[in-house]
Amino acid sequence: MHSAPELYKEDTIMSIMSVLLPAVTWLWSLQALLVSVVVIITAVRWKRSSTARLPPGPRGLPLVGNLFSLSKNLPLIYQEWSKKYGGVFTVYAFNQPRVVMNGFSAIREALVTNADVFSSRPLVQNPLSSDPSAKGLINEPYTPRFKEHKKFTMSALRDFGVGKKSLEGKILEEARALSDVISKKENKAFCISRLLKNTTFNVICSLVFGSRFEYDDVKGKELLLMIEQFSALRLSLLPLTFIFPATRIIPSFKEVSEGFKNTQLKLREHIREEIAKHMETFDPNDIKDFLDAFLLEAKKREGDENSTFTEEQHIEVVLQLFLAGTDTTATTLHWAVLFMILHPDIQQKVQQEIDSVLGPNQDPSMEHRSQMPYTEATLSEISRMAATVPTAPRHSTSSDVFFRGYHIPEATLVYVNIWSVLYDPQLWPEPNKFDPTRFLDDSGKFTRREEIIMFSMGRRLCPGERLAKAELFLFFTSLLRRFTFKPPEGGPMPSAKGVFGVVHSPAPFQLVAEPRK
């Protein structure tokens, strides 16, 4: 017989167990469910991988794949993985495969030899546009629409000076304005980054809007800030916030999602306002800038229900011209100034060549470029080491393809690691060493290298390449003609180690611009 206290104790235990057992059973059921989900997803992913025979790559975690390995220094990680897995391998973000191309051979084979398959873009809708079909140029798949708008954009840019003397005049006007602002620093230490962005921003403004901003203009400063914030985002994470909205609870994903939304909305609103102003003053017989040219093309197609020259497409194209054309060129110029500070002997050689060609009073011109082989070689080495756009915008396969022994299905994401080419020790011995002579032959003549693929390759070659090269040459020679760049006296030497974002930029540093006699 049990005593009363013992019976009470047993009853209490039984009561507690009656409450806990369902909870424990529920937890076991939840665990079993989660395990089942992981098993199913892994099995599906394994089946998909084994069926597709995607290139092998680093092992990831269940559910998330390699997500936690995809850090800010992604180009470096991809290059390191290529040492083990070769020029083409696969990584996963959740269960989404990404085929990564590394090295000049693999990239050229994909983007040039197999251009019919590797020239498209993934189908990701832009939630900020009222017209989901309006993707501009960068995000448009390789369709007749893309070809039509690329042809129009290239033609319009040529009409407004790209490759002509008229554009040189606009660039030199900005170079003089920049030099005047720098002169006012009077040998005091300052950061040149924002000034360079203001300069390249004004070149795009002149082409697109037909006007420029003064360096102290409030509106101009606000727009530049938006572009800077956009360029600092980790855009590699952005598509996942569209595909898996739940990822936005993760701080890094939330930062990218909100940053993208805020900058895009503000820049879009400004472009929309400019389009409205141009519509009020539009004269088909007086086409002054890119906005006018687009409006003219849209009017020619009025009544055509299949016309792609819509206002939303107009906004997308202009937005991409600003985002791609402002920060990339300015950042490369920022690297140029940094490398001149770090290598004063090279800076002096460039200045001597500029002086010998231009003399004391002549402005630089694109015609002078062939007369300045050492300067051209220095700019090529700057572009190589800057690697301003270290990974190309995402590609997507437009059909199934057998590539290097692997079966890559249609609509597979493809990442092109430009960095792996520009820093390949097989192509560039001691790739971290700044050496312009890589681009000079034994007689001192400039030698082009096909491996310099800062603007990518194939059918998605950047349409702004010619403009960017003109800006780099004319701004660089204009600045070194007037100033010698040095570190502040007694201050630390700036670092050549860059910061990865949308662009690869120098870490912030101070400099002194000493006027030349």
From TrEMBL:
Q: Which InterPro entries match?
A: Cyt_P450, Cyt_P450_CS, Cyt_P450_E_grp-I, Cyt_P450_sf, Cytochrome_P450_fam2
> What family classification does the UniProt entry report for this protein?
Belongs to the cytochrome P450 family.
Q: Which cofactor does it need?
A: heme
PANTHER family associated with the record: CYTOCHROME P450 2D6-LIKE (PTHR24300:SF404), CYTOCHROME P450 508A4-RELATED (PTHR24300)
From the Swiss-Prot or TrEMBL record, give the protein name: Cytochrome P450 2U1
Q: What is its main location?
A: endoplasmic reticulum
Q: Does the keyword Oxidoreductase apply?
A: yes
> Which principal EC class is assigned to this enzyme?
oxidoreductase
